[in-house]
Amino acid sequence: MTLFVLMILLAASVWAIPIMKRWSVLTGLAGTVFVGILFGPPFFSIQGPIQLSLDRLLVLVSVGWMAIEWRAGTLAKPAWGRHDFVLTALVAWLFLRVLGTDAPPEETPPMSRWLTYFVMPWMVYMMMRCVPLTDLALRRLLNVMLGLGCYVAAIGIFEVTGFHGLVFPRYIVDPQYWEFLGRARGPLMNPAGNGVFLTSTLAIGCHRWIHAGRLGKVGYLCLIALIGAGCLATLTRSVWLGVIVFAAVLSMVYLSRSARALSLVACLVIGMLSITGFGSIMEIKRDKDMPASEAAKSVELRPPLLIVAWEMFKDRPLMGHGYGGYFETSPEYHSRRTWDMPLDKVRPYMQHNVITSLAVDSGLIGATCFIIWNLVVTSMSWRLMSQRRTNPELRCLGTFTIGCVCGYFVNGMLHDVSVMPMLNSLLMLAGALTTNAVVAGDSATRVTPRMDRRAAAPAWARPNATGVPGC
After folding, report:
1. ∠ CA 14-20-25, rounded to 5°
2. Which DSSP string corresponds to 147-161?
3. N- to C-terminal Cα distance for the chain?
4. What is the per-residue DSSP string for 282-341?
5. Is the dihedral of CA 331, 335, 338, 342 positive or negative?
6. How many CB atoms lie within 10 A of CB 381?
7. Using CA atoms, how far apart are residues 350 and 327, in angstroms rounded to an integer?
């Protein structure tokens, strides 16, 4: 086996020099997110004291390449903002809350959870903040993201329709991974996480469709229909709601007042129709090995989970119970009888809300830092998307980040998306790109060249050789 691996590495080394000529920190970081989404640990991983997967190896390569480019002077120290320090403070605080925290043997160790879900995305964010952004590089990155979204959507459709022979990677439809089998769970192996990524790429397609020509509109409309079908194939209500929220936000920018009123009426009509068919929506057949009646029970679990989170938060509101130690500290709260509700039913389940999960584990300090950073990034992306004089690629970037935030937090109200693979990396990649674009624009606005007053004055006011204006 070792000889086989060495032969593969020797054959791959032929392509090393051409790849290195085109390699950059941006390529490595974007590749980390793309590869992590499409080829996660179930596809390839090296087991050991620390699990190494393709995305983690790419992060290490990016760190080494960044050191080379920094030494060569091609990278510059970025203008750090307050939200950069807030994000760093969040990662540091979670590390402090990991220390001394235990987890049951069958659960992920808190330190491994911290490294995977926050340290690696933070590294992607901080390194991306040092990368100068060009229109060409941004266009290529968004194009690759859109193409990957179409591929993941097609995989999801094949999953639901039963064309499993067309699904790649194959582990997506492996019955060994039984959870969510029968829905468009995608390479992330979770339909909600898959929906977050698809909503982000749908945003890119919508922006390109709005600004494309007649022929381009037809092409992008087909891509939007494909990604939209992928979102439907997740059979996940929070994913559908995330797409609706993004569409509402997009209409705030691109539709006229009359069209906004019409869309509001349409949303109300759709809402009323949804309420009348609420029971059938709650009991749709979703997972292959789960009856339709079980789908409605997932909604009933939310109130008991919120009550448990509230009771835990009241006991330690500032510092929390320790990051990654929820299952170690929550059993005593499931036994309380102060609420007329069967709290024991949610004993095997983790928190289904990203904010309450952080509040329970890290207290107000951790949850507040996370919320502040996301609010700043959202305001920056809204600024890029809504300014009509902004570069089209930057507006597309702002739309992409808005789509990512909508998908992340709408799904995050019903699932703890922070512990789903690569979603924090995707969110922080979008946040870093948006921050770089806004900071670069602000710097260009502040730094204006000194103009010669004589050249700036109108022709009639410029003095002639005699020193008399207008003569």
Report:
1. 150
2. HHHHHHHHHHHHHHH
3. 90
4. HT---STTS-HHHHHHHHHTHHHHHHHHHHHHHHSTTT-S-TT-HHHHSHHHHT--SSSS
5. positive
6. 27
7. 7
Q: Which residue has the higher pLDDT, 82 or 273?
A: 82
Amino acid at 227: I
Task: Collapse the DSSP code of 100 into the 3-class scheme (helix H, G, I; strand E, B; otherwise coil) and give the result.
Answer: coil
CA distance 100 to 2: 39
Torsion of CA 191, 226, 40, 139, to 10 degrees: -130
Give the model confidence (pLDDT) of 226-264 as tens digits.
Answer: 999 999 999 998 999 999 999 988 988 887 777 777 776
Is residue 350 within 8 Å of 357, Cβ to Cβ?
yes
Place of tokens 């791959």: 12
Q: Packing angle between helix 135-161 and helix 25-38, nearest 10 degrees? A: 10
Both structure tokens of 457: 């004055």
Give CA torsion, residues 276, 236, 220, 431, to 10 deg: 120
Predicted model pTM: 0.86
CB 378 within 8 A of CB 190: no
3-class secondary-structure state, position 49: coil
